[in-house]
Structure formats: C-alpha cells, structure tokens
Amino acid sequence: MDQEQIELGKKRFFRHKGKGAEEVSAQEGESRRPRRRMRLRWRWLLNTLAATSVMLIIATTAISLAIYSYYTSTIVADLESRAQTAAGMFRNYTETNYDYTARQFINEFDEKSVIEVQFLNANGQVKMSSLMYIAGVSARSTDVSAAIESKRVKTSVGVDSATGDSIVSASAPVVYNSTVVGVVRLVTSLRLVEAQMTRVVLTSVLVSLVILVVMGMSASYFIRSVLDPVIRVTETAKRIATGSYGVQMERWVDDEMGELVDAINDMSMKIDQSERTQSEFISSVSHELRTPLTAINGWAETLYNGEVRDAEDVKKGMGIIVSEARRLTNMVEELLEFSRIETGRFNLSVEPIDIQAELEDAVYTYREFFRRKGLELDYTPCLEELPLISGDPQRLRQVFCNLLDNADKHGGAGGRVDVSLSKEEDNVVIRIRDYGPGVPEEELPFVKYKFYKGSSRARGSGIGLAVCEEIVTCHNGNLAISNAEGGGCLITLQLPLQLEERIE
C-alpha cells in the first residue's frame, strides 16, 4: 500500500469518527452524484451518435457504391455500343481493307484523348492502336479472349498493369464467313470517375458531419429535457424518503413524465396522510386506553382502601370497573382483529345463515341500550321471505354491532337511528341511518381507511370501519357510506344472496 492510499484511509477514518458513518456516506453520495449523472448523459449521447454514425456510414457507402456502379455501367454500355459499331464497318473484309479502315477510324475518332482504340488480329495481337507504341503487343485482357471465343462483344473492368489505373474495356469481334478475323477493342480509364467519386465521398462525409453535429445538439437537448425532470423527481423522492412527506412537485409537461409527477405527488400525499393518521391513531388509542384504565384504577384503589362502604356505591363502582374492563376488552379484540387482517390471518367460517335473524338480534341488543341513552331505534324488516345466504354469522353480527355503535357515537345527537332490511335484485340490502351532523364531504372518501378519524372527536380507535369493510369484502359484498338527505349519515350494506366462492 503506497503513501497516498494510507493518507486517504486516515482521512476517511477521521471523517467517519467525527461525523458518523451515515453523514459521511450521504456526503460521499452527494459528491458522486454529478459524475453518475454525467456518465448517463454522455452514455446516452455517445450511443445516439454512434448509432447515427453507423447509419450514416452505411448510407454513404451504399450511395457511393450505387453512384460508382451507375457510372461504370454507363461507361461499359457506351464502350460496348461503340465497339459494336466499329466492328460493323468491316462487313466487306480484306486484309488491306481492314488496315485501311482501321487507320481511318483511328484518325477520325474524336475521343482518342480519353478512349484508346485498338485493332487486334485473330490471335489477340495488337495490329494498330491510337497509342502507336503498343502495336504488336499481345492483349491479355479477358474481354479479348472471350470475344474471340464467343464471337460476341465482351467487356471487362480491371487494372492497367502499366499505369495502375482502373480501366474498362470492350472488345467486339470482326467476323467474316463465320470466322473471327480481328477484334476492335476500346479502352478507357476510370481515373475521372474515381476522382468524381472522391468528391462525392468527401461531400457525403461533410454532410454526415453536419448531420452528426445537428443530431448531437438535438440529442443533447432531448436528453436534457428528459433527464432534468428525472433528476428533479429523484431529488423529490429522496426528500420523501428522508421524511419530507407531503412535498409536491410542479407538473411541467402533459406526457408520461407528467403522469410520473402526478403519481409521485399522490404517493407523497398518501404517505403524509398515512403518517398523520397513524400518529392520530397512536394518540387516540393511548387516550382510549388511558381513560378506562384511569376509571378502573381509581375505583379499584377506592374499594381496596375501604373508602366506600355503602353497598350501592360499591355496586356502582364495581359496575364501572366491569363496564370499563369490557370496553378495554372490546378495544383489544378490535386491535387483534385488525392485526389478523394486516397479517393475512383473517378468515371466515362460512355457513348458511338467516341474515334477517342475525340483524334483528343485533337490533334487539342495541334497542335497550339506545333507550337508556334516550336514543330511538326504528327497525323496518323485509316484507318478503329471504332465502338463507352463505356467510359467517359471528363476523356479520360484529359488522352490525360496529355500525350501530358508530351510529350512536357519531349520530346520537339526532336522537334517532333507522335500520331497514330489503331485497334488491340478487342482493340483501341493509341501511343504517342516523340523524346527527353527518360526515364532512371532504372526509367521506377516507372514513373507511384504517386509523382515520377525521374531525370527529368521538371515542374509538379509527379501525372499526376498516375491519367492517374487510369482513364485507370477504363476503363479496359492498359497504358504502354517504350523507343522507335532510342530514345525518347513511350506511348501505349489500350482501349477495349466494357467495360465489367460499373464503377460508
């Protein structure tokens, strides 16, 4: 290990010692973040430019080859036509006539500067040429031998061994009495074509570079327009992760990124609502537990110390202890029920039940309780006979009792609670209405959420309706809460006459 690594290790040790591992880790993460962003930007940009470059190279190569092929094929066709025309001049063949006509053709040929004219004998030796110094030389080009053998015009593209230039040649046989007596051969260099192709390629390269620059600028703008919102979303998500619940982002655009911003904002609000609801739940449960415990503890100490001797007062104190103990028991049972739901251990014992009898038992139980509190309970039974339905009688009675208890706690000030049972299509419908202040409209969507109590100051943990909702849902039913016309809260419970499947 060298000295620099040792010094670096010492610095990190003292930084951890002085600030704590989490703070140092956060700072190192902050220092690394820009490099991480730059790598993503450059990787995206380089990948875009690389893909564009490959496409431009392929396009440039294809266009260049197409242009070169077009020029070459045009020159080949032109030479082939000229050679055929020249060979046609020797229909009345004689050796003297052949030499004279060949020399005359060469002298009158206007493009000797760019096209070489050769007249060969039947053995492929040059008898006459527009370049006089090659006369007598054997032409070893493939087009000559092919033309002599096939008695047709033949062409070839190759390289001149003397100059190294690419050349195109066309050879047309001179046929007399079905015998090849000579060959007319035209040869031209592709130097001009290659020079033109060089200009085409250079122009294509220049255009490609311009396209790459424009593409790079466009891609850079696009990458920035995508990554900058992502970075903002990331920063906001980190703020939410560190506890800044409820923070909101501005929606910049109406596209997928805008939908992501909406989702993050919605998540932030729901987390904030959940955190506040849980805090309220802890406070509420603490208060709900403390109140009966205080009463139980106070009366127990009073009775234990013998401060109350009158039999009626003792009976009253014992009644308070029993009542508050029962209240604690119910609260604990409710919390345990909710815990079973949260951990997936909640189940139903489904059997055929008389839903009307179960509801009437709950109504009968609460009617006397309501009467003692000065609250009237009006029950309207179903006028037609209801078939047995599949359900858990204990769980459904728990729902009925919880809903009636809520009507007492939140609507008891109205002095009246209405309960009705009816059959509507394939459902049993139970309605429970109180005549209290009702539920604020802005709180209606949340009243069935766990731990939610809203603006209500009534006793309770805020999980009773969540438990009821779970029980009803497991029965394939529906629990709806709304405000009734004329004031008060209306709870509508729908249960199917037949469960589609048994839930265990």
Question: Keywords for this structure?
Answer:
504 residues; alpha+beta; five-stranded antiparallel beta sheet; five-stranded mixed beta sheet; 10 helices; 12 strands; 57% helix; rod-shaped; disordered N terminus
Write the layout of secondary structure elements.
Layout: H1 3-19, H2 21-87, H3 95-108, E1 115-121, E2 126-129, H4 142-150, E3 154-159, E4 166-176, E5 179-189, H5 191-241, H6 256-304, H7 311-342, E6 351-353, H8 355-372, E7 376-380, E8 389-391, H9 393-411, E9 416-424, E10 427-434, H10 464-474, E11 478-483, E12 489-496
Parallel strand pairs: 7-9
Antiparallel strand pairs: 1-2, 1-5, 3-4, 4-5, 6-8, 9-10, 10-12, 11-12
Helix pairs in contact: 1-2, 2-5, 5-6, 6-7, 7-10, 8-9, 9-10
Protein model, in words:
- Strand 11 and strand 12 (489-496) form a beta hairpin.
- The strands form three sheets. The chain has a five-stranded antiparallel beta sheet, sandwiched between helices. A five-stranded mixed beta sheet has the order 7-9-10-12-11. A two-stranded antiparallel sheet has the order 6-8.
- By secondary structure, it is of the alpha+beta class.
- The chain is rod-shaped, with a radius of gyration of 50 Å.
- The two termini are 64 Å apart.
- It contains ten helices and twelve strands.
- 57% of the residues lie in helices and 16% in strands.
- The longest helix has 67 residues, at 21-87.
- The model is unreliable at 1-6, 8-37 and 500-504 (pLDDT under 50).
